[in-house]
Hints:
This protein is an alpha/beta fold. The chain has helices at 12-24, 64-74, 88-92, 96-116, 156-175, 197-206, 226-239, 256-266, 292-298, 306-319, 321-331, and strands spanning 2-7, 28-34, 54-58, 78-81, 124-130, 179-184, 186-188, 211-214, 220-225, 245-248, 253-255, 274-277.
Amino acid sequence: MKTILVTGGCGFIGSHFIRQFLKKHPDFKVVNLDKLTYAGNPDNLKDVSKNRRYKFIKGDIVDKETVGTIFKKFKPDFVINFAAESHVDRSIHGYADVFVSSNIYGVFNLLEAALRQAQGKIKKFVQVSTDEVYGSLSLNSKVKFTERTQYNPRSPYAASKAAGDLLCHSYFATYGLPVVVTHSSNNYGSFQYPEKLIPFFALRALKNKPLPLYGDGKNVRDWIYVLDNTEAIGKALFKGKPGEVYNIGGDNEVANSGIAKRILQILRKPDSLIKYIPDRPGHDRRYALDGSKVRKELGWKPRYGFDKMLAETIKWYRDNPAWIRSAVKRLKTVNSHIEI
Length: 340
Ligand SMILES: NC(=O)c1ccc[n+]([C@@H]2O[C@H](COP(=O)([O-])OP(=O)(O)OC[C@H]3O[C@@H](n4cnc5c(N)ncnc54)[C@H](O)[C@@H]3O)[C@@H](O)[C@H]2O)c1
């Protein structure tokens, strides 16, 4: 039996990854280390909590001792780091310190433990990162980010993720630690914390509350269904070449106003619910990922269609009020300016 250490597995993408991974790999034990910030919820993995190959440990990747103990005790063969502060707005509005701490120092602790505690045993260390490290593209161009695009992060969130990535690359170059970095575009699906655009708009629309849209609403994101991303990350884990970067995009560019309108259409609500608000500072105009490398080298392509999965995603938020109530309750503990 092999062991994979997954950090941040009680969040949105990590929980989908663990569920999919346990199903696909009966020869693996999964250890999930998660601090349970407001964004993490162990109930996201309620269905696997009794699985004997699954173990949840509440702990902080910023705490060196915790991380060292976990590596010593479980001796993981593989590591995937999902743990991060992930909401850009919070990094802008006064909470950047915890982004720096979890997204940089936390990554450093994991790399150190992988290098020193595991002593050559780690077969692959996957750092899950974001297209936001590349900065912003212009609206009227066809240019996309490739793995060779220079980093140009423009929010404290993106800068903290970029720094974490660079530490990973340095541990490959200096010590030969078999690190792979994935950059995905915007994910959507069930279990996404409702401060994020799609669940936020869906829940507001369900209550006939206005959908606050930044600026002119024309900012474009490349949307990928979460299970497409987790599958690509799994491929990067087993087939990715150490030291390499893989961009995982959905080939699905949609303006934020387009997202708002589609959600309203699915819920049969009027466009008049859209309310334009002042733009967010440093708001990146467009993200788009060139996913040709991951398709060619890892044999992956997205399987899920946007319209169908968006409708299913919205239905999930409508049908899970207890999950929403628990998320909203946790949001109150972190002084959020968001009202869901
Ligand atoms: N959601 C997206 O669209 C997207 C896109 C690209 C990349 N990413 C990256 O994917 C990863 C997962 O994103 P997500 O959307 O699932 O985030 P999320 O906020 O839903 O989940 C993050 C999880 O990490 C845990 N965590 C946070 N700080 C921790 C710490 N110090 N120690 C241990 N656990 C900690 C939280 O409790 C939570 O369970 C992040 O690294 C993010 O940067 C996300």
